[in-house]
Small ribosomal subunit protein uS15 (uncultured spirochete), 89 residues
Amino acid sequence: MALSKEDKAQVVLEYGKDPKNTGAIETQIALISSRISYLTEHFKTHKKDTNSRRGLLKLVGQRRKLLKYLQRTNLESYREIVEKLQIRK
């Protein structure tokens, strides 16, 4: 199961500038990061779930692309979100 509607709303409130602005880069990165953390917990019990592992790798690549775009366009916001989410970069 993916993130619930309440979890998504909480992430949008925490990282977004506006609760309805789910398209902001910072919000997208935070939502993808929460999905990644959910999947890593899933793999602790389901080690052989290779199809979901492929989805995890796609999410990591998507987050990497969004972070690269944010770094190019708004360096201060990039540094802030990497520090908040504790992403290695």
Notes: Residues 25-85 form a domain with the Helix Hairpins fold (CATH 1.10.287.10). The first helix runs from residue 5 to 15.
